[in-house]
Specification:
The complex is a heterotrimer. Chain B is α/β, with parallel strands linked by helices. Chain B has 15 helices and 11 strands. Chain B has one domain: Amidase signature (AS) enzymes, CATH 3.90.1300.10. In chain B, strands 1-3-2-4-6-5-10-11-9-7-8 form an 11-stranded mixed beta sheet, sandwiched between helices. Helix content of chain C is 36%, strand content 19%. Chain C is built from 15 helices and 14 strands. In chain C, helix 3 links the parallel strand 11 and strand 12. The longest helix of chain C is centred in the middle third of the chain and has 20 residues. The chains are: A mainly alpha, B alpha/beta, C alpha+beta. Strand 2 of chain A pairs antiparallel with strand 8 of chain C.
Chain lengths: 100, 467, 469
């Protein structure tokens, strides 16, 4: 199943991967071949089959509304590439905030 | 003089208990072995400074989060990342007094079947260093096989414990989904990932499983586990062994592998098992496709957190979005990129029903087929890997060829079932692995069958060239 | 041609649980940045969510109060996108299997009740807080950046979506006020728009009266008070009517409303619609609310505010009835009236004077307040005000204040009045000459002379009598 370059670009954008032209070509071919192979699943007529989201038959697993110790701020920030005055610092997020 | 190549964890426990060896001596013996052989094999990505326990030392696959100890998941994007918390399994291991030897090599984010996708170089098979040790947990398997650790923990999503165990000639258990906590394990595919033991013997495997198994309040997908029984029986009387046609006759199974497995099936009969043929009509045929839709889909979402904001690699490039895109492009290797894109595609608007949605239904079919087989049988038997260890580089350029390594391990993974690999012979001088699959929570059955076969097979797990 | 507005609301409610939705970090308003975080809400590798039982129960409770069906099996889903305040790169929310669906909420109006459909109510987690730091002019190399505080990230949110059943800005505002009252009475949130614990966006379209289909709608955001919501919706309705009337077509857009200038500003259109790639959250198992729990919660739901407004209306006007209910004072009102106090006076006291004195209606003994109101004309105004202010105190007794009955005894008041009149001959003459406004002057003088204890009505009568003699 061929996947067009535009589709690869679209998916790369969704996944926030800045691919080079070479990568776009190479991955395009490889993804096309893989999609062919996995597309096999549509051969089966499974209209009356329920999907499985969880291998185990569990439900209602939750916890009490009891506070647990949070991380001390230094630990929360320990691995951060850049911080400022107790905040995580990132380049400006331009563009509209997606709706919650 | 401690022979780390031959010493089992159970033996080591005995030595310590009887005071014949001190914890420090034991630790030093493994460190010496690592010094001697790891340069060639590259099992370890990092080594601990000193022992943090007095028990039998252990190696952990580098997707297992260890507080204060670098955890890279085999990726450049996490190089230098030091967790501020222990995964539950690391905490349980620590509580049991098992000192950490080091973190072992893995395909990047556990994606692969050879460790060739590790950003830090592949590991080598101790039986033949020109060949792969399997993956993604090749580092752990090779370390145990080469006497660089008495036992280790790995993680299995589509076969990443079982297949390396097969290729390295040791024991590996992929537990029932939900019996071992995933809290603190770098996530690949949430509904498939499980942590499990990689050991020299089945009894060692049971001992280590007992340390790590059990419900965890920090992981909502865990369940209560039945108590672990250490296997002792050396016969298979009363055990019904099923031989699924499709798993044993799949295309691509090497003749040497088939022969070793068939001999072992005969051995089952000799040990008193009731052996019969069974069928998993669509599980093998559609298993790979099902897995390579669901696992990448979940991975595409699980790997979204690697964005350069709170930890790990950051590559600046203009604003936030540009930074995220460049960081991920530079930090991820090819295989994670492929799977992320594949996964995003499978979930995207217009394609969800046909791909991800359909794959979740195939999963039900696979679970149902296995359940039906387990009405007549206690355990299913097959090869673990279609081939013995292949040369480094042989499949690295062809993703689909690499994916086929998981053909036989994947179906039972999709159904959340436990699977045990034990070595059952050699083919061309390289180990052949036997896969035993049971119903959910049937680890004790797998241990029983595996142990009896192990005793009867008398497979020498020390690689020939190292004896 | 007459136009009809079609309005739907999307509401977010911050639940006031002690901990976050998926981890045990304690929620604390105003905590120093990044001190209420953990591996889970920071999305560290390997971290996993575990749902807050209280949040689930409260969501069910809210759904029941909104007349919803509670799902037999509800699922959490992942909503995937990239933004600095979303550490996992996805939000855990609910998609096609929410906890509550198909409800209805009655909004009383001057001419009858309107039932507003509730499409759904579901549970999700809030994002963290991002602050954009602007650059200093003239600095080279991009002084702009953003700072992120993850304390708020992970707070439980309930999202409520209504059917497009609202027909005016005023109705939408009333709906929200009553909804807010319901939420507060359930004890699950403070629901304050100014604090951000209640947020509402509006979806607005218009159509000609009689038209059955729906035209293109626009979303209005950034309205953070009930009044602003009414004004923002009103502004958008006007704008859309203007577009249609001038022969144009309304284009789907999201607008931010600015209250100070009463303007709507369109947000930058994104090149492509966001594809959130929803799929069931594999780290969480389904939620199947036990029937026993649902029944117990159903029995504990307070009477819906709409019904209460209707009941109060007899004897009061609609506005006052609504005001009593939306301010949470109707129970006190009813109890006081049941103890024989006058309706109008009680409403006035409860709505205005009690509120003005800062008294908590729940702390007031209705019987005592009733006594006070019944006897209000017999005591000095000052005393009455004091009594009101103290009515929330434990052990409050009206008796003590009623004892200070205003002096109504004519034999006591007449001498005082006579003295005032005698001392102010000029004003008396002026009054008798036609300046009737001076009555106030005399009343004031008598009140001062009696230290406010004279009964003003009696003083008034006696003064008139004597001055016209």
């Amino acid at each position: 199943m061929a996947i067009t370059r535009a589709q690869v670009e679209h998916v790369a954008r969704l996944a926030h991967l800045a691919l080079t032209d070479e990568e776009l070509d190479r991955f395009g071919d490889q993804l096309g071949a893989i999609l062919d192979a996995v597309g096999k699943v549509s051969e089966l007529d499974l209209t009356d089959v329920e999907p499985t989201s969880h291998p185990l038959d569990l439900a209602n697993v939750w916890r009490e509304d009891e506070p647990q110790p949070s991380l001390p701020r230094e630990e929360a920030l320990a691995n951060a590439p850049e911080t400022e005055r107790g905040f995580f610092k990132v380049p400006p997020a331009l563009g509209p905030e997606p709706d919650l | 003089m401690i022979d780390t190549l031959r010493l089992t964890a159970e033996d080591a426990m005995g030595l310590l208990e009887r005071g014949e060896v001190s914890p420090r001596e034991l630790w030093d013996a493994y460190r010496a072995a690592i010094e001697e052989r790891d340069r060639e094999l590259h099992c370890y990505l990092s080594l601990a400074d000193g022992p943090n326990g007095e028990g039998v030392p252990i190696a952990l696959k580098d997707v297992i989060g260890t507080k204060g100890v670098e955890t890279t998941a085999g990726s450049k994007i996490l190089k230098g990342y030091v967790p501020v918390y222990d995964s539950t399994v690391a905490a349980r291991v620590k509580e049991a007094g098992l000192p950490l030897l080091g973190k072992t090599n893995t395909d990047e984010f556990a994606m692969g079947s050879s460790t060739e996708n590790s950003a830090f170089g592949p590991s080598h098979n101790p039986w033949d260093p020109t060949r792969v040790p399997g993956g993604s947990g090749g580092g752990s398997a090779a370390a145990v096989a080469a006497g660089l650790a008495p036992w280790a923990l790995g993680s299995d999503t589509g076969g990443s414990i079982k297949q390396p165990a097969a290729l390295c000639g040791i024991v590996g258990l992929r537990p029932t989904y939900g019996t071992v906590s995933r809290y603190g394990i770098v996530a690949f595919a949430s509904s498939l990932d499980q942590v499990g033991p990689t050991t020299k013997t089945v009894r060692d495997c049971a001992l280590l499983y007992r340390v790590i198994a059990g419900r965890d309040p920090m992981d909502s997908t865990t369940a209560e586990t039945p108590p672990v029984e250490l296997p002792a029986a050396e016969d298979l009387k009363g055990v019904r062994v099923g031989v699924p046609r499709e798993l044993n006759e799949a295309e691509g199974i090497e003749p040497g592998v088939r022969q070793a497995v068939e001999r072992t099936i005969e051995l089952c009969r000799a040990l008193g098992a009731e052996v019969g043929e069974t069928s998993l009509p669509r599980s093998v045929d559609y298993g790979l496709a099902c897995y390579y839709l669901i696992a990448p889909a979940e991975a595409s979402s699980n790997l979204a957190r690697y964005d350069g904001v709170r930890y790990g690699l950051r590559v600046t490039n203009g604003g936030y979005h540009g930074m995220v895109e460049r960081t991920r492009d530079e930090g991820f290797g090819d295989e994670p990129k492929r799977r992320i894109m594949l996964g995003a595609y499978a979930l995207s608007a217009g394609y969800y029903e046909a791909f991800y949605g359909q794959a979740q239904k195939v999963r039900t079919v696979i679970a149902d087929e296995h359940r039906a087989a387990f009405e007549r049988f206690d355990v299913l038997i097959s090869p673990t890997s279609p081939t013995v260890a292949f040369p480094l580089g042989a499949k690295a350029q062809d993703p689909l060829a690499m994916y086929l390594s998981d053909l036989l391990t994947i179906p039972s993974c999709m159904a959340g079932l436990p699977g045990l690999n034990i070595p059952c012979g050699l083919s061309e001088g390289l180990p052949v692995g036997l896969q035993l699959v049971g119903p959910q929570f049937a680890e004790n059955t797998l241990f029983r069958v595996g142990h009896a076969l192990e005793r009867a097979l008398e497979f020498d797990y020390v690689p020939e060239r190292l004896r | 041609m007459s136009w009809e507005a079609v309005i739907g609301l999307e509401i977010h409610v911050h639940l006031k649980t002690r901990t976050k939705m998926f981890c045990g970090c304690e929620l604390e308003y105003g905590a120093p940045e990044n001190t209420r975080t953990c591996p889970v809400c920071l999305a560290h590798p390997g971290a996993l969510p575990v749902p807050n039982e209280q949040a689930i129960e409260w969501t069910v409770r809210l759904g029941l109060a909104l007349g919803c069906e509670i799902a037999e099996t509800a699922l959490f889903h992942r909503k995937n996108y990239f933004y600095p305040d979303l550490p996992k790169g996805y939000q855990i929310s609910q998609y096609d299997a929410p906890l509550c669906i198909n409800g209805r909420f009655a909004v009383p109006g001057a001419d009858g009740d309107r039932e507003i459909g509730i499409t759904r109510a579901h549970l999700e987690e809030d994002a963290a807080k991002t602050v954009h730091v602007g650059g200093v002019g003239g600095r080279i190399g991009g002084a702009d950046y953003s700072l992120v505080d993850f304390n708020r990230g992970g707070t439980p949110l309930v999202e409520i979506v209504t059917e497009p059943d609202l027909r005016s800005a005023e109705e939408a505002k009333r709906f929200l006020q009553l909804l807010r009252q319901t939420i507060v009475e359930l004890g699950i949130s403070d629901a304050e728009m100014e604090k951000g614990t209640l947020r509402a966006d509006a979806n607005v379209s218009v159509r000609e009266a009689g038209e059955t289909g729906y035209r293109t709608r626009c979303e209005i955001k950034n309205m953070n008070s009930f009044n602003f919501i009414a004004r923002g919706i009103e502004a958008e309705i006007e704008r859309q009517i203007g577009v249609w009337q001038s022969g144009g077509e309304v284009v789907q857009q999201t607008y931010d409303y600015d209250a100070s200038s009463n303007t709507l500003t369109a947000r930058r259109t994104k090149e492509e619609a966001e594809d959130y790639r929803y799929f069931p959250e594999p780290d969480l198992v389904p939620v199947q609310p036990p029937p026993g729990l649902v029944e117990r919660l159903r029995r504990e739901i307070p009477e819906p505010p709409g019904a209460r407004v209707r009941r109060l209306e007899s004897g009061l006007d609609f506005e006052t009835a609504t005001g009593l209910v939306t301010s949470g004072r109707d129970r006190l009102y009813q109890a006081v009236v049941a103890a024989d106090a006058d309706r109008r006076a009680t409403a006035n006291v409860v709505m205005n004077q009690l509120a003005g004195a800062g008294v908590d209606p729940d702390a007031v003994d209705p019987d005592e307040l009733a006594k006070l109101i019944v006897g209000r004309e017999t005591i000095p105004r000052g005393t009455f005000a004091e009594a009101i202010a103290a009515s929330g105190d434990p052990g409050f007794s009206a008796e003590k204040y009623l004892a200070e009955a205003a002096v109504s005894d004519v034999s006591e008041l007449d001498p005082v009045i006579d003295r005032i009149l005698a001392d102010n001959e000029a004003q008396v003459a002026a009054y008798r000459g036609g300046k009737e406004g001076l009555l106030g002057f005399f009343v004031g003088a008598v009140m001062r002379e009696t230290h406010g204890k004279a009964n003003p009505k009696v003083v008034n009568e006696r003064l008139r009598a004597k001055l016209s003699a």
